[in-house]
Amino acid sequence: MKLIETLREGDHVADVYLCKTRQQATSKTGKEYENVTLQDCSGMIDCKIWEPNSTGIEEFGPFDYIYVVGEVTTFQNNLQLNIKRVRVARSEEYRSEDYLPVSENDTKVMYQELRNILRTVKNQWLKALIDRYFDDPAFEEAFCRHSAAKTIHHSFVGGLCEHTLSVVKMCEFYCTAYPYLNHDLLITAAAFHDVGKLKELSNFPANDYTDDGQLLGHIVMGSELIGSACRRIPGFPHRLLSELQHCILAHHGEYEYGSPKKPALAEALALNLADNADAKLETMKEILAAARNKGADEWLGFNRLMESNLRKTGEW
Amino acid sequence: MKLIETLREGDHVADVYLCKTRQQATSKTGKEYENVTLQDCSGMIDCKIWEPNSTGIEEFGPFDYIYVVGEVTTFQNNLQLNIKRVRVARSEEYRSEDYLPVSENDTKVMYQELRNILRTVKNQWLKALIDRYFDDPAFEEAFCRHSAAKTIHHSFVGGLCEHTLSVVKMCEFYCTAYPYLNHDLLITAAAFHDVGKLKELSNFPANDYTDDGQLLGHIVMGSELIGSACRRIPGFPHRLLSELQHCILAHHGEYEYGSPKKPALAEALALNLADNADAKLETMKEILAAARNKGADEWLGFNRLMESNLRKTGEW
Amino acid sequence: MKLIETLREGDHVADVYLCKTRQQATSKTGKEYENVTLQDCSGMIDCKIWEPNSTGIEEFGPFDYIYVVGEVTTFQNNLQLNIKRVRVARSEEYRSEDYLPVSENDTKVMYQELRNILRTVKNQWLKALIDRYFDDPAFEEAFCRHSAAKTIHHSFVGGLCEHTLSVVKMCEFYCTAYPYLNHDLLITAAAFHDVGKLKELSNFPANDYTDDGQLLGHIVMGSELIGSACRRIPGFPHRLLSELQHCILAHHGEYEYGSPKKPALAEALALNLADNADAKLETMKEILAAARNKGADEWLGFNRLMESNLRKTGEW
Amino acid sequence: MKLIETLREGDHVADVYLCKTRQQATSKTGKEYENVTLQDCSGMIDCKIWEPNSTGIEEFGPFDYIYVVGEVTTFQNNLQLNIKRVRVARSEEYRSEDYLPVSENDTKVMYQELRNILRTVKNQWLKALIDRYFDDPAFEEAFCRHSAAKTIHHSFVGGLCEHTLSVVKMCEFYCTAYPYLNHDLLITAAAFHDVGKLKELSNFPANDYTDDGQLLGHIVMGSELIGSACRRIPGFPHRLLSELQHCILAHHGEYEYGSPKKPALAEALALNLADNADAKLETMKEILAAARNKGADEWLGFNRLMESNLRKTGEW
Amino acid sequence: MKLIETLREGDHVADVYLCKTRQQATSKTGKEYENVTLQDCSGMIDCKIWEPNSTGIEEFGPFDYIYVVGEVTTFQNNLQLNIKRVRVARSEEYRSEDYLPVSENDTKVMYQELRNILRTVKNQWLKALIDRYFDDPAFEEAFCRHSAAKTIHHSFVGGLCEHTLSVVKMCEFYCTAYPYLNHDLLITAAAFHDVGKLKELSNFPANDYTDDGQLLGHIVMGSELIGSACRRIPGFPHRLLSELQHCILAHHGEYEYGSPKKPALAEALALNLADNADAKLETMKEILAAARNKGADEWLGFNRLMESNLRKTGEW
Amino acid sequence: MKLIETLREGDHVADVYLCKTRQQATSKTGKEYENVTLQDCSGMIDCKIWEPNSTGIEEFGPFDYIYVVGEVTTFQNNLQLNIKRVRVARSEEYRSEDYLPVSENDTKVMYQELRNILRTVKNQWLKALIDRYFDDPAFEEAFCRHSAAKTIHHSFVGGLCEHTLSVVKMCEFYCTAYPYLNHDLLITAAAFHDVGKLKELSNFPANDYTDDGQLLGHIVMGSELIGSACRRIPGFPHRLLSELQHCILAHHGEYEYGSPKKPALAEALALNLADNADAKLETMKEILAAARNKGADEWLGFNRLMESNLRKTGEW
């Protein structure tokens, strides 16, 4: 299979790709054609079907894996694939993991590392809560395949696991540097802080906001999920639950970022700082990776998240 | 019983009042004394016990109903009660309802009016939810005795019921004026929008924020409570629940007012507008009532909630 | 006459429409053509004159009613009318009311309903002011044909009347629910709160900001107009006028929305709340109406006014 | 007469001062006394009447000129005048100008200078407007005795004239430096920009916000006054009036400072810049003057208007 | 040489222009072509090279002066130059000053006027600092050829000199109007306030942000430069240097405009006011100049800097 | 020596303390007395000298170490020391380190740990810069005795060293977790990020803002200091210096916190995140330490820095 990021003008293509979008269009001269977007793990490419009614063009739709035959051209400095023939692929013709953006780290390894850190939690109630989820293979399966975002940082398969691991490790560091923090509360809150994203974002290949995601948000859904889970653990202290839910509710740190409460506990503050630091440093990593072909002294333009022009650091 | 708002300099007092606070103090000359605040339904008065170790001063604490003997003086233009004797009152000596700020409307009548409007909800699931709560005498008892705030508007016994009724009636008006609104969803959301205040504020006489109130807030607790309740109603449509929870989560309208979501549904918008309008018009009512002795042309000073100097409207 | 919203690809057109805009253009191949926008009460359509110098193309300009002959095609998923022949229509060939967006309610009926409510104002001075305007047929004519906005809510013929009626009715509701409000002042202020829009927006078909509208704004012009009118009513109490003007000046509620004063009187606050509620609920109504062909579970995208993604409420 | 700023501990006082406030009070020991504030052109002093019922204490009230006998003491590092005897002064016993804060410049001279600059306005309509006001002795009298503020910059007799002159002179400078500005419009707008303060602030000695000042504000009142005046000048061009009113309405530059419109014309922008510059540089002048006894290297504390700690400039 | 602003459709061009940008492109039909922008002192024009591989098209790049042969057409209402032949021009074929935007005033005259004002500074240390820079021909050369901005006000050759002169003159006016200001400190600070722009912006023809400009900014670089210079003047008082640097650091007035300190000295405040006034009044001048062909009653659209719709002032 | 935090009502005191402030006052009865504040490393106490003219009261001033004799009383629930005799102490009577707030960690050990980490910097230029400072005993002495703030976090002797070490260690953690960060640049920037505080705050015991601190601030002074130092290292790459200065300038992250630039480099972002995290987690630590006597379920009130009510975490 030829990866999309390796395609060049003039290439002949005859391979399976994931169809992300499909739309009808009409040219200025009144001719009907179609706009299609194809995706694999390395990126996306815009395509045209100039003869949608020709015999080679069979029926297909978004999120179908399709076998396409065509040629690569350039239009306004972008590559474009002109599709001559297309049909839905048979399941034995492709492996879905080749068509989705994935973490550059092995998700299984990351999950194991996360699991090991969580074993350091000694409080019996928090331990019970952690085991109920992280020992459940169905949870592991879902947790490892999910992203942590639709578009920005960690928007790939395994993203939720990778981001959670990073935040948990930073919280571990905080516990060493600031021993007054309650280790068990902080590590547990970090492990579950984005668990609501399992409901906020739909599974790949769509990876888009769900209805509940837009109406309720992952912060409230995560807090409610933990509330239900803890109330099913007999004897779970009410106050401990409230503090755990508070950490989840406050982890965005500011009202305008969707947290209904600002951090009132030291652990809630620490979780907010760790989540924010990982989000920003991972975003910066992805921005710099995307600009890996630019010169060491090139500015990368204004970034809305960072509210700043960004630049690669030099080599002196 | 002599109401606090009727006390005047020189009055002799021998009656039962509710003790709100009690603190020890030392005068500049090194003498120990005590600061006490007493409350009844008409207001509060600052008191001093100048001889805390004299025989007439028996043991008591905050939220005790106490029988006090003393005299009213003035200090820096405020009335002050010098307590000579004090003891905890026996339960037959007072009726607790005389000592708390109460709605000027009959709570039973308001609850009945609210109940009648809620009967217009025809959707079977919403009706089931309403009946489960509003037909429960324990819920009625709690709902009717609760306030809707610690200090500002509706901070009295019955305040939660009165505010909820006002908001429900305004939503009824909206349904008539804007028929595109979904009546059943809007009325149900209005009925439950502040139900989390039952947990956010402790019961009278304390009427103060609870631990959960500060950590989680009434918006999230109300949404979670409705979530639990609906999931216990077999067949309750998931999407209807999400929309109902969204209305509760979004009813403050803005992130900075503690809503983790902004209104995305017309009914969520309408509920937000009704809640805001009643809060502001009731606050204005209480401000003007407190200034009832001021002249028609007096300004009432800057009000932080309204961010404006306020004034009585003239009589021309 | 064929309504624009009913046109379909391939239709032949030979009818009168209102010309909204006309601009010359040059194709990439250097050929001159013209862009024209036509409007009727059901919507607008983009048009091309590919042969502007052909004999069938007579002289015309913006806001002319023109008789056009042409054919409907599609271009980039939008309909487009290719005009073959065009001439200015004779006045007997069209009725101008067919070409403007209009309220779905009968303006005469709305005006009568408004007039009836205003008769409940008993204060002699306010009554005199109301009668001077609302009994004047020229005022009625202007008031009923005007919009309340250029683009957003109530931007149609009759919009000013419809919005004013809605606000007046909500203020009536407030007077019942909060009896401490001064009925006569509030209803009068509501009746006149947007009267400055008669000067801020030009008449249809332009319905655009006037010079004075941009330099002074409807809030200040409305206040000044009421000031002049009241000073011509002998004996009108100065303080009543100040309060009435204050209500008009403060009705946007916030400095950043163009109000030079924040509400200081209960009636000014109530008017602000009613104006805001009608503006938002009417905007929501128009958004949902425009999306009437979308599925019940479709999101409608981010709305700048509401600062939120919006969605239709479900049917369960 | 002994100026208040020259009083020292132990001084005996027997002179006429202006009474600014008078309030009853009760000491901790239950004794009644009175708090009084006296003012002259050099400052204010707090006073006590420890024996309000003694025979030497006659009737008087705020804004009376009173003859007092008493002694100066210190209390908590502030001077305090203990009043032994007091009576209302006879009009021949004092000159009111000795009791009010006044401009350090001669108001007549400033008015003349302003009048001379205004003669450079050649446009016949603007000239007519200026003459109608500035040639009117009653206007001159009012304009010269008024302040430009209640507390901050230019809050003294003559302050309105002094501030207007400063702004007009800065606008003259702008016309030289930026010749594209329309001289006649800018100078006229500058002359009248704060004319609404004649109605917003009451006359001295009160110099406090009027009812209309709080309800309508000097910006809107000034614009309305100019509107009325110009409409009484036959033939005054409508557009010129709109532009003049726009300059007045926009002279605070930002919505949050009470301007209902932001500057749209170059002259409105220039007026806003000149008004802002004079307000800030005069405020700084008054702050530094008040700190004239402080050392050259002392910081003057945080100033809310400037949102900064302030300091005297050094002498090197 | 034919100025770009005088070119009209159909013109034949055979002249030298400055190449600002050059980019390859591909048409929809797959044909390669090139986009080029040419500039002279009167403006810019978009160009196309439809046959980039033809023999007449020689090698060239951005900031080359090139001799082009071609024809002017229109495309979508804009002029466009179709280049047939192009080659790099020889240095004797053009004068670079004809190709850059220049001040409409003579830079030499402005520099002399600035120099004369600076001679009024009498403080020995400030005088030494001024002389060290303004008597240095290399500094004069750089200072006179630099702009004061990349795109907005004063973005032309001589812009830095013109802006500095304007600010210095306004500060002189302030010293007269507010004699408490320290003349020498204010005039010196004004002279150097934007000196950091020599490093923030690269020389013409690029006139773009430098690396240091983006990383450090002209405010900090200007302050550091003055710090180094003064420390090389033996005996320069430390405090005077701190105050001078403070004026430079605070001259944008607000944190969000890049000043790390808010004005704490009267002279820092005055400099901030003068800089702001010149920036805004010059921007307005350039906006009006660009709209010189518009009618006297046309609105100029929303301007982001002024946050307002702008309009020409009328002629009455 | 008796530590101030151990004093109790009735204690007799005869010891040396540091005088922080001294002020004259007059009682209501006209009697002169003095307010004095004494400090040692454990806290502060308010004192009174009721007989300032008695023979035992010798001359002394702020920041003198004084030997006092007196008795501890309580006034309004606070302890107060009534001073009977006082004289300036001889240098052999006290050790100044007993009178200042100090880090709970050994500064020498922290400095050594910091020094060891800095040895991991391998870039020759950055290494040269570090050695020039951190190998200089005078720098070590100053760096170890300084605080990092006047009042909030790290406002004690050794605070600058402790805060710098924390930030450096967090940056080390970041370099491990996000290997794309440039280790040498980030660690060096962290080591010097607050070096300007040596000039912003005066030495203990005053520990107050200096003149330069208020006029220029530690951010700009730190950047300028590094600029001067690097320019004295022959061959130091210009671009490396710019990036290092950028990290220092941007380390507050937002304009409104005094940074003239927002982070544009990954290392500047990381430094900002580490500085912010340590500041907040240390502040929280100090708040909780100050509340160590409060019950586990007590709320600690609203904290302005955190913009939230704060609470201890429970023990379950």
Strand order of the largest sheet of chain A: 1-2-3-5-4
Largest interface: A-F, 46 and 46 residues
The helix/strand class of chain A is alpha+beta
Distance between the termini of chain A: 40 Å
Counting DSSP E segments of at least 2 residues, the number of strands of chain A comes to: 7
User: Roughly what is the average pLDDT of chain A, rounded to an integer?
Assistant: 92
Low-confidence stretches of chain A: none
What would you report as the Rg of chain A, rounded to the nearest angstrom?
23 Å
Succession of helices and strands of chain A: EEEEEHHHHHHHHHHEE
| Assembly category | homohexamer
Biggest sheet overview of chain A: 5 strands, mixed, barrel
The shape of chain A, in one word, is: elongated
DSSP helix fraction of chain A:
25-40%
**Strand proportion of chain A:** 15-25%
Number of helices of chain A: 10
Task: State the main characteristics.
homohexamer; 316 residues; alpha+beta; two-stranded antiparallel sheet; 39% helix; elongated
Description:
Chain A is α+β, with helices and mostly antiparallel strands and 316 residues long. The first copy, chain A, has ten helices and seven strands. A five-stranded mixed β-barrel of chain A has the order 1-2-3-5-4. In chain A, helix 1 runs parallel beside helix 4. The two termini of chain A are 40 Å apart. The model of chain A has no long low-confidence stretch (mean pLDDT 92). Chains in contact: A-B, A-C, A-E, A-F, B-C, B-D, B-F, C-D, C-E, D-E, D-F, E-F.
